[in-house]
Design brief:
The chain is α+β, with helices and mostly antiparallel strands. The chain is built from 16 helices and 16 strands. The strands form 3 sheets. Strands 1-5-6-11-10-9-7-8 form an 8-stranded mixed sheet, sandwiched between helices. The protein has a 5-stranded mixed sheet with strand order 13-12-14-15-16, sandwiched between helices. The chain starts with 20 loop residues before the first helix and ends with a helix. It binds histidyl-adenosine monophosphate.
């Protein structure tokens, strides 16, 4: 590659036509299931007013402190490439005054997100999330519903080596008591904390529970569990979520150390982790965020949701299901010209095939007929249309069946119909 060639930005990925198979499966499965569970698609902009994330995602989060791509937008304003979808959905809901019409709404979104993280396997600076947000209900059944839904997506794309990790982090009533206790216990061992966690001790001590450093993890293991500090209402909610999951047949493990890296969560938090991913093993993260709507200037409506990480899920699919075979969708019919004079007619035929909903293509590089046949083979074409001088003169097309090599001639006017009938019959029989 020439030295001055411009390359992609670190932490971003290109995806070529032969790499889409798992992506297609994931997107189609998620869409189908999200809609089956009553979630409707919402699209919000790729960038938002920076204040939305500072306020919504939270000032003490790593995302806001270190990872946002923010751009000055004139007159002291700033816009930010969305690092997550949750605040945008709440903002859109409020802006459209949906709470005044039908407060309970369920949304889903699929799109790119941006975080300035240290790129590593499955961690990118532009990545993609498939998320759901349910607005306007505090029912614990809804917590369970979202978990069941995420699990169902993973099952239906063919994954088995994953597990749900669950915790409750309480509410603004009961959490301060726990936070004070953690702060007291960790302050005694301040010297043993990593530099980031020394800072977290001041800003938001519960972030320490999420630290991946060995020394901090040792200290965290000795802390009391947050569930021991839950108020009655939070404890009851948590029990109801677990009971509903049991009834739905979804297994889970409880992890008192799971606090999640975002400020808005209350009560239920969860992650779905996959065995094939190493240290950054979450393929989905979610939870309740009952205070966010009010924080963003709306009514006090309870909400919850999750986001599936697409790249992480694709890695999980590759580790369990292998890399898919070439997933490029090739033409079903290739029109081969044996004569330069045939090219204009070939162009017309290709167009007629496409109008008849047949995937069709021809050569645009001036290749020899032999090389065109080779190309047709390489692209897994089912039938070739051969156009030579004889065919041109007789206004015929020779159809070649690439599976068994048989070939026969038909009048040009009937060729599209004939191949359409053959392909249709194969599809009906479920043949490749
Ligand atoms: P999150 O845990 O930050 O939650 O992200 C959800 C998932 O997105 C992660 O489990 C991971 O698979 C994927 N992900 C996050 N960052 C990256 C990255 N840099 N590269 C690749 N994948 C990544 C949220 O974003 C919340 N908004 C989820 C939510 C929705 N909570 C309530 N509603």
């Amino acid at each position: 590659m020439a030295q001055d060639q411009i390359k992609s930005v670190q932490g971003t990925e290109d995806l070529f036509p032969d790499q889409w198979a798992h992506w297609r499966t994931l997107y189609a499965t998620a869409r189908r299931l999200f809609e089956r569970y009553g979630y409707g698609e919402i699209r919000t902009p790729v960038f938002e007013d920076t204040r939305l994330f500072v306020k919504g995602t939270g000032e003490t989060t790593d995302i806001v402190r270190k990872q946002m791509y923010s751009i000055p937008a004139g007159e002291g304003e700033s816009i930010t490439l969305c690092p997550e979808g949750t605040p945008s959905v709440v903002r859109a809901y409020l802006q459209a005054n949906l709470h005044k019409q039908e407060p309970f709404q369920k949304f889903y979104y699929i799109g790119p997100m941006f975080r300035r993280e240290r790129p590593q396997r499955g961690r990118l600076r532009q990545f993609h999330q498939l998320g759901v947000e349910a607005v306007g209900s505090g029912s614990p059944l809804l917590d369970a519903e979202t978990i069941v839904l995420a699990v169902e997506v993973f099952r239906q794309v063919g994954l088995t080596d994953f597990g749900v990790v669950l915790n409750s982090i309480g509410c603004p009533e009961c959490r301060p008591r726990y936070r004070d206790e953690v702060c007291r216990l960790l302050s005694d061992k301040r010297d043993e904390l990593c530099e980031d966690c020394k800072d977290r001790l001041q800003r938001n001590v519960l972030r320490v529970l999420d630290c991946k450093e060995e020394g901090c993890r040792r200290l965290v293991a000795e802390l009391p569990a947050v569930v021991e500090y839950l108020c009655d209402a939070c404890a009851e909610h948590y029990e109801a979520v677990k009971a509903a999951l049991g009834r739905a047949g979804v297994e889970f493990t409880e992890d008192p150390g799971l606090v999640r890296g975002l400020d808005y969560y209350v009560r239920t938090v969860y992650e779905i982790k996959h065995g094939g991913l190493g240290a950054r093993d979450a393929i989905c993260g979610g939870g309740r965020y009952d205070g966010l709507m009010e924080l963003l200037g709306g009514p006090p409506l309870p909400c919850l949701g999750f986001a599936i990480g697409a790249e992480a899920t694709i890695l999980a699919m590759e580790s369990e299901l292998g890399s898919p075979a070439d997933s490029a969708v090739g033409p079903a019919v290739y029109v081969v010209c044996f004569d330069e004079a045939a090219r204009a007619d070939a162009f017309e035929l290709v167009q007629a095939l496409r109008c008849a909903e047949v995937r069709a293509d021809m050569d645009f590089e001036g290749r020899s007929a032999k090389s065109q046949m080779r190309m047709a083979n390489k692209r897994g074409v089912r039938f070739c249309f051969l156009l030579g001088p004889d065919e041109l003169q007789r206004r015929e097309v020779t159809i070649k069946d690439m599976a068994d090599g048989r070939q026969w001639s038909v009048p040009r006017d009937g060729a599209v119909q004939e191949v359409g009938r053959l392909l249709g019959a194969e599809e009906a029989e479920g043949a490749p």
